[in-house]
Amino acid sequence: MSNKPSIPKGTRDFSPIEMARRNYIFDTIKKVYKKYGFQQIETPAMENLSTLFGSGGDESDKLIFKILNSGDYLSKADGKALEEKNSTGLTKSIAEKALHYDLTVPFARYVVQNQNEITFPFRRFQIQPVWRADRPQKGRYREFYQCDADIIGSDSLLNEVDLIKIIDDVFTELFQGKLNYTVSINNRKVLAGIAEAIGETDKLIDITVAIDKLDKIGVDKVLEELQFKGVDIKALTKLRPLFELKDDLNENLKFLENLLSTSEIGKKGIEELRTVFNYVNQLGLKTSNLKLDVTLARGLGYYTGTIIEVKVDNFPSITGGGRYDDLTGKFGLKDVSGVGISFGADRIYDVLLDNNLYPEFKGDSTQVLFINFGDKEQDYCLPLLFQLRDAGVNAEIYPEAAKMKKQMTFANNKNIKYVVMVGSDEMEAGKLTVKNMESGEQESLTIEELITLFK
Amino acid sequence: MSNKPSIPKGTRDFSPIEMARRNYIFDTIKKVYKKYGFQQIETPAMENLSTLFGSGGDESDKLIFKILNSGDYLSKADGKALEEKNSTGLTKSIAEKALHYDLTVPFARYVVQNQNEITFPFRRFQIQPVWRADRPQKGRYREFYQCDADIIGSDSLLNEVDLIKIIDDVFTELFQGKLNYTVSINNRKVLAGIAEAIGETDKLIDITVAIDKLDKIGVDKVLEELQFKGVDIKALTKLRPLFELKDDLNENLKFLENLLSTSEIGKKGIEELRTVFNYVNQLGLKTSNLKLDVTLARGLGYYTGTIIEVKVDNFPSITGGGRYDDLTGKFGLKDVSGVGISFGADRIYDVLLDNNLYPEFKGDSTQVLFINFGDKEQDYCLPLLFQLRDAGVNAEIYPEAAKMKKQMTFANNKNIKYVVMVGSDEMEAGKLTVKNMESGEQESLTIEELITLFK
Fold first, then answer.
1. So what's the pLDDT on residue A55?
2. Domain check: are B262 and B287 in the same one?
3. What are the tens digits of pLDDT across the range B6-40?
4. Per the database record, which ranges form the Aminoacyl-transfer RNA synthetases class-II family profile domain (chains A, B) (predicted)?
5. Over 60: is that where the pLDDT of B119 sits?
6. For B86-97, how does the pLDDT look when each residue is reduced to its tens digit (9 = 90+)?
7. Which of residues 323-352 of B touch A (CB under 8 A)?
8. Looking at the structure, do residues A330 and A187 belong to the same domain, yes or no?
9. Do both B411 and B273 map to the same domain?
10. Are residues B375 and B315 in the same domain?
11. Which of A3, A9, A13, A162 to mutate to test the interface with B (most CBs of B within 10 A)?
């Protein structure tokens, strides 16, 4: 093969500067997670297909990358599916393993498998790539990182408060107060209450799926879609005011209390929202705009209480989360409530880049380059180079006596701040000529003086 | 599904303490890599199968985990292979992608793909999991981490010197001088010279494969195997002294010079070894035992010069590497020499654990727990909790007013050093009762005083 090599669609390489940026995001999130008592775990990229299948419905199953069994996999293949060329039917018999498509299902599996060793409530965070056989498009990858934090084994709403404060801490640090963003909150119980209040309990999913599109298609289209789904006209009339709420928390909570006065589950949802808002408002937020959004309906397949979403203007969701009451039930551990959030590292990456919000990463790369003038000078420089390194300075010597211009270009391209030149004069005097590549200034320094520049 | 969940054979979960240990290894290696001017990159877990296939021979191809194409993959399947139930033949037509089995091939692909943006010589490091469909056994996993550093685009032996010094720096820090380990060096050109000198140039691979087993099976078995492979008896007689070399560098180099006096490639190899040893011995090593091992023959498929291996007594290789002159040739970029090493993180993990060499990771987890005595106390504590966190202290409040014993057990299990108790007395006095869980002592402190304990 001598074609120009490429990588699979929807995947990407990370160059040194891209790594520095991404590590900056991870490190910020990690530091905040730890401040809140979360502990890091990691699960394998590969899970048994049976663990992943059926957790998010058929659509999710299609998004799972399956791993072909090793060896003579056809010998155990489902004969009927093979004969009928039924790809979906064949899969389970030739692929036992798959790549996880999120970190939530592996976490649920981990909790059940290690339930006897875990102290609950368990606060864990996990930063790993996930894989989805999605159609690649701008900002959507087939391999991307999630940064999840979950608290499992406690239904206290203080956990929700912590997660909102974490979001506030992370984006306060990453956005440096230079970017507006909104943390929207809703509650699945309120959505259930609404369906109940308008007499359409069995159409909860249809209603919320339609409501969730409000931003994109507008009120009229939403109502049209609901009518098409068979929601009663009278019910729709009751629904309309929901879409026209102003941004006034107390008014809206009162409106909901009124609308849901006959729904037990709805009233419970309102109470939960009130509690969360009360705590957060008392404690205060640094830079987040927190708002109630009764149209927020993400993750309906598993969320049972609070729903959280973070948005920056003109960008898809950069963080989301919610409470789920039965994530581990699938694996045989019932009645364990959890709540979590997931920072979308790749989207946050793009937001910071678009808005020029990355710090400089100078110290991350080489700080000092010794120019190589030939064998004698090189031998003189080597011990000095290691003295620098042992003092914690990132340093290199150009590995051969190439032309000066080539070596200086190397220093420039690698963003190296100091270049050290040692010729016969310097060797005699026991000094180094040190050029600051940013200012262009040259100084004559001893190795000890050079080291102190980095203290 | 309500069976107890499990993970695929040869994979594992990492619990919080295991993560802390592994991150400690990664952080140590990273810091040293950066000191030597290496920059981090990351490549996708998935590569095109065509990129990976054929890089390490048929045996390697079998070890590759292939990813089943999405959708109706059978519609494009190789009809003949399907009919014949030929698994190997079918694979390429139903799996375009695969998981990388090392970081070297993806790096070569990366270099060729980005050759116009890269400044050579390029020092890159990469810490990522790799996947191999190997038979799982103690210390061998199907998903494990590699920590690679390579310098590409320079044939200077100073690069070899840097890599050996990196090994010395990393294990000096990780082993704290408490563990003996040996860095063995050889040169592929010397092995080629030996085959030439005994008149068996075409049997180089057989000879080196047999020699490599010396440790395990002894001299006689090695010679027997070679005789079986058709190596001439007279040649074998010449070979025998090689296996009986004492650990005397100068004597051994002289012996090799004598043996290889008629082999140009052999002499070149000896010269390279001499240069590397000279530099390293002049610069000195902190804790490594560096030795020449003419029987070291790893990576013969691609190494063309220096070969490096690090071993701790009674343990398989924990680090290995070498020089390759044509890694990127496969992807259309010829004549680029590189040299690299790979730390085997999982084996180093086990060595440190077996020898009790991990530091304590206290600050990594929660440092302060507020006991929750009820709503009133909780509301009083919340702002104090956030004051601690904002001061950079990892802190939590137990999320509900559970029994005291339960909360104290939680603190114990999570290794939390300070437990804060606030009842009505404390609220009145504006003080906190702080219990040191290690010493058992209790103090009455203000929140500011508590914060200063962590400065």
1. 64
2. yes
3. 999 999 999 999 999 999 999 999 999 999 999 99
4. 1-383
5. yes
6. 999 999 999 999
7. 330-332
8. yes
9. no
10. no
11. A13
Interface check for B45 against chain A (CB to CB < 8 A): the answer is yes
- Mark which of A298, A326, A354 sits at the end of a domain: A354
Whether residues A114 and A219 share a domain: the answer is: yes
Question: For residue range A68-110, what is the model confidence (pLDDT) as tens digits?
Answer: 999 999 999 999 999 999 999 999 999 999 999 999 999 999 9
Listed as ranges, residues in chain A with pLDDT below 70 are 1-3, 55-57, 300, 362-363
Are A68 and B20 inside 8 Å of each other by CB?
A: no
Consult the annotation and say whether A296 binds a ligand: no
Is B334 in the same domain as B297? yes
| Shared domain check, B406 and B349 | no
Domain that holds residue A297: 16-65+101-354
CB contact under 8 A, A110 and B42: no
Together in a domain, B315 and B389: no
Q: What is the pLDDT of residue B180?
A: 95
Q: Is residue B136 part of a domain?
A: yes
Q: What is the 3-state secondary structure (H, E, C) of chain A?
A: CCCCCCCCCCCCCECHHHHHHHHHHHHHHHHHHHHCCCEECECCCEEEHHHHCCCCHHHHHHCCCEECCCCCHHHHCCHHHHHCCCHHHHHHHHCCEEECCCCHHHHHHHHHHCCCCCCCCEEEEEEEEEECCCCCECCECCEEEEEEEEEECCCCCHHHHHHHHHHHHHHHHHHCCCCCEEEEEEEHHHHHHHHHHCCCHHHHHHHHHHHCCHHHHHHHHHHHHHHHCCCCHHHHHHHHHHHHCCCCHHHHHHHHHHHCCCCHHHHHHHHHHHHHHHHHHHHCCCCCEEEECCCCCCCCCCCCCEEEEEEECCCCCCEEEEEECCCCHHHCCCCCCEEEEEEEHHHHHHHHHHCCCCCCCHHHCCCEEECCCCHHHHHHHHHHHHHHHHCCCCEEECCCCCCHHHHHHHHHHCCCCEEEECCHHHHHHCCEEEEECCCCCEEEECHHHHHHCCC
- Give A438 to chain B, closest Cα distance, Å: 19
Best A2, A17, A19, A42 residue to mutate vs chain B (most B CBs within 10 Å):
A42
Q: Does A6 touch chain B (CB under 8 A)?
A: yes
Q: Which CATH number goes with the domain that contains A120?
A: 3.30.930.10
What was the pLDDT predicted at B1? 45
Note the pLDDT of residue A263. 95
Residue B64 to chain A, least CA–CA distance (Å): 8
Residues of A numbered 10-39 whose beta carbons fall under 8 angstroms of chain B's beta carbons: which are they? 11-16, 19-20, 23, 34-37, 39
